[in-house]
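Changelog entry

Holo records now carry the ligand SMILES as an explicit input line rather than a separate metadata file. Below, a converted record for adenosine-5'-triphosphate, shown in the new format.
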Amino acid sequence: MISVTDLCFSRADGDQVQTLFDDFSFEVSTKEQVALLGDSGSGKTTLLHLLAGLLTPDGGQIIINGEVISAYNDKQLAHYRRKIGLIFQHYQLLDCLTVKQNILFQHQLNYPNQTAKEFDLLIEQLGLNGKLNKLPHQLSGGEQQRVGIVRALINQPKLILADEPTGNLDQARSHQVVEMLTSLCKERQINLIMVTHSQQLTQYFDTVKVLANGQFNE
Ligand SMILES: Nc1ncnc2c1ncn2[C@@H]1O[C@H](COP(=O)(O)OP(=O)(O)OP(=O)(O)O)[C@@H](O)[C@H]1O
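Structure line, unchanged by the conversion:
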């Protein structure tokens, strides 16, 4: 469950201050899957970064599954971030590591002496058998994004934040990837918030929220 109350956040841009959120409040219930739309520059990525604890609000409260992350210090935020899954438009895979190493990198940092429980199952479900020893640049965009999805799911998060994960894929692949991602999150009862510019992709989600002028128009 996500609860945001009276969120305030401004960005300094040279001498100018741009207020993106001013007393913005909303809730996302447990397991809900949300497609987040909005014009370019409306603040979708900024909102995701606030929910990920990568940015600190100027005011208000952000509570994620009972954790008041808006009150956390850097160390607490680092610990919180290990428990969520992040998926990016440009995949952000490390090109010097194989697919398998990329997927397990964070898991091994988090849990040095544990095997990743769902590794084999996720590799099978996302059709990545046979790709594990390849380097990211040897994969197609769709395959790289599926690696990003396994990497996000392997730590068994309760929340996944995805920022335009299909921005680099064609329409058919975008639908495949989003269908896969939403159904895997549903099976595992994971909250998913995904930024997209595609109205068509919203069909896979429980809720569509449109960000405009620092508020949701539902
Ligand atoms: N690092 C930054 N420093 C200053 N201003 C920034 C920074 N990042 C983003 N902004 C500004 O904050 C506003 C919101 O940006 P954000 O990236 O959150 O929008 P968005 O809705 O995700 O846009 P898009 O759909 O184009 O990705 C924009 O006006 C942008 O120029």
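Spot-checked after migration. The helical segments are 44-51, 74-81, 99-110, 119-125, 141-153, 171-188. The longest helix spans residues 171-188.
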